[in-house]
Amino acid sequence: MRSVNHVASKARRKKMIKHAKGYFGRRKNVWTVAKNAIEKGWQYAYRDRKVKKREFRALWIQRINAGARQYDLSYSKFMGLLKEKGIDINRKVLADLAMSNEKAFKAIVDTVKK
Question: What contacts 114, CB < 8 A, 6 or more positions away?
Fold first, then answer.
């Protein structure tokens, strides 16, 4: 008779089923279906952590562009002038300033235009 460590394998399955909490139908309680659903979910999560960074950068660029165009500058010209003047502010901060603190953003634009 072969020896199987059922305690360990059951614990492994139980741990995976625990990850499937909240899934609909058989995805939450049938081992093979749940395992496939969980693994696919992890693939999406891994991929979308990268995609999220791309999407936020695109959003920041749109906001900076909108803010810069109020002062007759395009995004690319504005960023070029920032680099030329040696002002090192990242896009996340610039976008936040353009949205919530127009005076500070205008001060940066004025500094760049001089």
Answer: none
How many CA atoms, within 13 angstroms, populate the side-chain half-sphere of residue 114? 6
90 inside domain: yes
Give residue-wise pLDDT tens across range 61-91.
999 999 999 999 999 999 999 999 999 999 9
What distance in Å separates the CA atoms of residue 37 and residue 20, rounded to the nearest whole number?
8
Give the CATH number of the domain where residue 16 resides: 1.10.1900.20
Q: Quick check: 27 and 37 in contact, CB under 8 A?
A: yes
State the SS3 of 26-92.
HHHCCHHHHHHHHHHHHHHHHHHHHHHHHHHHHHHHHHHHHHHHCCCCCHHHHHHHHHHHCCCCCHH
**Residue 96: inside a domain:** yes
Q: What is the pTM of this model?
A: 0.80
The tally of domains found in the chain comes to 1
Domain containing 82 equals: 8-113
Dist CA 104 CA 110 (whole Å) = 10
